[in-house]
Amino acid sequence: MLQVRQQQAKDCAHRQDGVCWTNVSLSQPDIMQKLTERIDDLKQRIAAWGKRIRQYTERSTRFNQNRLFQSDQKRLYKSLERPMVSGTGPAPNQADTVAFWRGLWSEPINHSEGPLTEVVASQCASITPTDPVIITPDDVAEAVRRAPNWKSPGLDGLHHYWLKGFVVCHTVLARQFQEALNQKSLPSLFTTGITHLVPKDQVTTDPSKYRPNHVSADHIQDTKIHF
Length: 227
Hints:
Layout: H1 2-12, E1 15-16, E2 19-20, H2 31-71, H3 73-80, H4 94-105, H5 116-124, H6 137-146, H7 160-165, H8 168-183, E3 193-199, E4 210-213, E5 223-226
Parallel strand pairs: 3-5
Antiparallel strand pairs: 1-2, 3-4
């Protein structure tokens, strides 16, 4: 389509109302006025064609992104990410990398909540407790049904797409969620994740020059680091 528009613009540069401008005599008294009008007309046509091309390109991009969102969300999100910097140097030492990120994530939090917790507790004392929550396989099926198909999986490597089809797993998941709710504590599997380190620039030997992605762990010792 763009090539056709360019060819039409070239044709219009030589013709107006069927008259070939290459044979126009420059001795005509109003030749400068005609040339000025012709140039303005061509500028307006080119601007209009450029706008139509941009609108077509934007519409085509939106259509393709919407279709890709329905079929493969992971691929769409990856295409929308900024270009990844590929370092040319060697990877940093693994021990230094683990030590650096452990120093950031495993530092104890020293803060004082003060009387805030007591104030909140006193304000909530008059609130009627809710009934005990019972998690059923139907609840799990409903939650999985709304989950994106191809978002990054956990340590088991299982995407939501497969959990939607493996209905036999819903009963086991419901029991595990119920146990965690009753015990008021999460198993280590829920707080263990995989961290992918992406270089920020061409410096690849400095552990601080990496950006952590897909972090789902509270402590570095519970996280696997992938380069």
